[in-house]
Amino acid sequence: MSNKSNKWRIDFTNLSDQARRYEIRGQTYVVDAPPPPGFGASVPAITSSSKGNLKNRKDAQQVSTEKDQETLKIKKAWDAALSPGKNIPMNAFMLWMSGNGVQIFSVMITGMLFFQPIKALMGIDSVFERYESSKTKSQLIWPKLVYVILQLLTMALGLYKCSSMGLLPTATSDWLAFMEQKQILEYSAT
């Protein structure tokens, strides 16, 4: 039992033979106390050569932090590029619910499908400017391209709705005013 209690016990009665010298920041200290528990004398002190290693470690950490930030910027740019695609199913459902008749609600929704993508395409630089840096500028081409494609897909959904409502001139009867009239060769009398 006494062995176990001595394991965690420090004897402060005989300190003179345990005097040690420590060098901290160029100053030497003599301490007449035993080292604290867990302290190892074999741990190297920070010297000028290890300070250089510390600087290299900080530089390496800074480089890895910059790479992590670039990776995060590209990831966020992809999130911004894919966000219009998340609205397409909702817009398609709204178009389906509005019906094919020419009514104020269906015309407003169809107009929204044209004006919002046009406004978004005009402001594409403001969407991606927070993700641009000298290193990420070349990597933002693909997210921008996907963003443009998804906005054009939203506009195509609006065109489909206009066609289903009969607002697009897709039939030959829509162009009768521009067709030449047939020349009548004979008249029959009754």
UniProtKB/TrEMBL annotation:
<dbReference type="InterPro" id="IPR009445">
    <property type="entry name" value="TMEM85/Emc4"/>
</dbReference>
<comment type="similarity">
    <text>Belongs to the EMC4 family.</text>
</comment>
<keyword id="KW-0256">Endoplasmic reticulum</keyword>
<keyword id="KW-1133">Transmembrane helix</keyword>
<protein>
    <recommendedName>
        <fullName>ER membrane protein complex subunit 4</fullName>
    </recommendedName>
</protein>
<dbReference type="Pfam" id="PF06417">
    <property type="entry name" value="EMC4"/>
</dbReference>
<feature type="transmembrane region" description="Helical">
    <location>
        <begin position="93"/>
        <end position="115"/>
    </location>
</feature>
<dbReference type="GO" id="GO:0005789">
    <property type="term" value="C:endoplasmic reticulum membrane"/>
</dbReference>
<feature type="compositionally biased region" description="Basic and acidic residues">
    <location>
        <begin position="56"/>
        <end position="68"/>
    </location>
</feature>
<keyword id="KW-0812">Transmembrane</keyword>
<feature type="transmembrane region" description="Helical">
    <location>
        <begin position="141"/>
        <end position="160"/>
    </location>
</feature>
<keyword id="KW-0472">Membrane</keyword>
<feature type="region of interest" description="Disordered">
    <location>
        <begin position="44"/>
        <end position="68"/>
    </location>
</feature>
